[in-house]
Amino acid sequence: MPYTPSRQDFDHYMTPNYAPQSVIPVRGEGSRLWDQQGREYIDFAGGIAVNSLGHCHPVLVDALKTQGETLWHLSNVYTNEPALKLAKSLVERTFADKVYLCSSGGEANEAALKLARRYAVDHFGEKKDKIISFAQSFHGRTLFTVSVGGQPKYSQGFGPVPGGILHAEYNDLESVRRLMGDDTCAIMVEPMQGEGGLIPATPEFLQGLRALCDEHDALLVFDEVQTGVGRCGTFFAHEHYGVTPDILTSAKSLGGGFPVGAMLTTDKVAASFAFGTHGSTYGGNALASAVALAAIEFIDTPEVLQGIAQRHDLFRKRLEEINERFGVFQEIRGMGLLIGAQMTPAYQDRAKDILPLAIEEGVMALVAGPNVLRLAPSLVIPEADILEGMARLERAIERLVNA
Q: Which residues carry this modification: N6-(pyridoxal phosphate)lysine (predicted)?
């Protein structure tokens, strides 16, 4: 008999740092998934804002097949054509002059933080090492990035953490000003906090951070791992604000489901990553680069980006209608197709209780912390799938209320 893995096998063979749902999806097409029993689900989770074009999009499949029959991996002893094409395309679309390719958002943020400190040492000396980030921020799971992230639960229990890291309050410029000094080398910020509850920055906040960095010779680092590559309705979310960073990180939607990350920066800052200062074995992998190039060229078009705004309005309208019936949401917020619904005090910390009910109704969703329901579907999800998925979500919320 052929071996068919079960959910119990996860507990038997895998480390217990995850607690996956009971169903095991085995096939996906567009914004729909099917499990081992052939049951269908509408996907509003998007692999945690990763599957930017849904599942098995023909443009990405074609790029993967074509490159897969040509060249997979070389290492960074050599360069390759897909990596160079991807870097060129990212530079042409952004403020950046240079690109560093890696395999994940955590790696991209690790590179950004190391580069910021290296740049400060090169230009101002070793005493300029302080990094300011924000309470409830999330920047990855390496020891450096969980330390910079503003959620202590992720860094506790792993011994001494890197020093020189300070945390201010998001959207509170005065809290940053109190920590800022000539020893500050960088501010790292999400244009919209993701894991912290889908809280968009105010324009005044990001503009003020830019001014503070300029005043103190510090670098402004935008973590756009979750908000970038169309997710918020522009190619990168900072375009909404008219604020340009010195360093920007990207992953998730960048590869449409294939593991890839990128750090973008200017010529002046990039010079501090001299030969041998940093690296990634799989970074710039030909397969990943080919898929990412296909993804960004498809996403960065008026048709897709304008469609994101229309889909956002439909999701928001349906969430508001659900809330009129059941009164479970205190606030609905977000940008583009990264949408959060904060629970009311009566349903405090119960967003997570919606997920298993939603699965039973045939729709996949997420949370952003215990108190915010998060939706991060495909950027090209059909309207019919939105309406059907929201009807299923409404049934799940009705069950929550009536339990």
A: 252
